[in-house]
């Protein structure tokens, strides 16, 4: 007959194993990695990275921010110089399929139609789609500025814009052989501007949710899911999150208006705020998205485990997992990851900065 001490030890061991199983990264439905698509010269190196790093770390979702880095046939006028070919995309499709990695393309829709002093391809080629044509791009960009210019937006009510962008969406989803599409939709500062002849005076939350519905419904025609960043659905003032990681122009009320079958990518980089709970309680699927701070990312990962372990039966499936975000192109990240680029030294410690996307990625997705 087992002694009481033995029984207690067995019980503790069982509970420990159970906790470890619950807190296993492989228990998360989404184990994601999001990065800018490689340029043509780095495709082979990125394929090597998928084989040797993403797959062994059990990544099952890869989002590539393509935008105009593809040789579009529907609108060749929107291609970047030196854009990826169909054959190169198919190489990426093949390696992801080999490792059961869901490959999802992203094109920034609505916002992020410019960056600092540079207008992106859509508004450069089709300037009449601009929500704020009276705001001119500066020769030298500074923030803050009198125009409140961070990034331009297209006008969601322009009668011609969706014909063009949906051509791109359909083509890139087809070549990626993807059942989902990431539309960006983050950091939208220009929407429903008073001087816009179509949007002026309209409710910004309704405009924002209307654009999400329009994209979602278009994707649904081919059984594709819409993914978006979640910042514009958070109230920056009430939460104290401010204008970058949340909305200060009243789009946050759209959280009650958007379709429930979208995936919300909830990014927070400076603090591990617990906003996934808000999205889940609104009936939305959510994944947590860190960037460069390993300590914060590990707290966010533990939070995701805790949400799933303590949630009701109805809520648990909405906590979908974690996704590492990298805000550079693949080539720059590979140089960092493999030590080609050396981080600067932290003057307070005398050691290289540890707050890097590569370190964050390694912390939350250890190699198996």
Automatic annotation (TrEMBL):
GO cellular component: membrane
Domain of life assignment: Bacteria
GO biological process, one term: glycosaminoglycan metabolic process
Enzyme class: hydrolase
The name this protein goes by in its record: beta-N-acetylhexosaminidase
Family: Belongs to the glycosyl hydrolase 20 family.
Gene Ontology molecular functions: beta-N-acetylhexosaminidase activity
Keyword Hydrolase: yes
Keywords per UniProt: Hydrolase, Signal
Enzyme Commission number: 3.2.1.52
Signal peptide start-end: 1-19
SUPFAM superfamilies: (Trans)glycosidases
């Amino acid at each position: 007959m087992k002694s009481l001490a033995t029984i207690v030890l067995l019980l503790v061991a069982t509970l420990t194993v159970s906790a470890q199983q619950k807190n296993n990264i492989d228990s998360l439905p989404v184990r994601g990695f999001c990065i800018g698509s490689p340029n043509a010269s780095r495709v082979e190196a990125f394929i090597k990275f998928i084989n040797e790093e993403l797959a062994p770390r059990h990544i099952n979702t890869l989002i590539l921010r393509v935008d105009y880095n593809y040789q579009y046939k529907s609108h060749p006028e929107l291609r970047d110089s030196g854009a990826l070919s169909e054959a190169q995309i198919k190489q990426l499709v093949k390696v992801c399929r080999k490792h059961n990695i869901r490959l999802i393309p992203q094109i920034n829709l609505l916002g992020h139609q410019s960056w600092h002093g540079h207008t992106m391809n859509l508004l450069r080629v089709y300037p009449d789609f601009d929500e704020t044509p009276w705001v001119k791009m500066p020769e030298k960009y500074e923030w803050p500025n009198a125009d409140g210019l961070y990034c331009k937006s297209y006008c969601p009510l322009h009668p011609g814009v969706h014909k063009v962008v949906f051509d791109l969406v359909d083509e890139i989803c087809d070549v990626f052989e993807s059942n989902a599409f990431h539309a960006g939709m983050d950091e939208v500062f220009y929407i429903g501007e008073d001087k816009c002849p179509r949007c002026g005076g309209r409710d910004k939350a309704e405009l924002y949710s209307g654009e999400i519905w329009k994209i979602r419904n278009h994707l649904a025609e081919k059984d594709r899911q819409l993914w978006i960043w979640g910042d514009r659905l958070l109230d920056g003032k009430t939460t104290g999150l401010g204008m970058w990681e949340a909305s200060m122009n009243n789009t946050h009320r759209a959280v009650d208006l958007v379709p429930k079958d979208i995936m919300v990518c909830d990014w927070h980089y400076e603090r591990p705020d617990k906003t996934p709970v808000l999205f889940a309680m609104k009936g939305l699927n959510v994944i947590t998205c860190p960037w460069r701070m390993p300590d914060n990312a590990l707290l966010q990962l533990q939070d995701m485990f805790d949400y799933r372990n303590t949630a009701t039966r109805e809520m648990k499936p909405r906590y979908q997992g974690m996704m590492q975000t990298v805000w550079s192109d693949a080539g720059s990240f590979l140089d960092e990851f493999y030590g080609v680029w050396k981080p600067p030294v932290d003057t307070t410690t005398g050691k290289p900065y540890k707050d890097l996307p590569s370190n964050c990625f390694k912390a939350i997705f250890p190699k198996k």
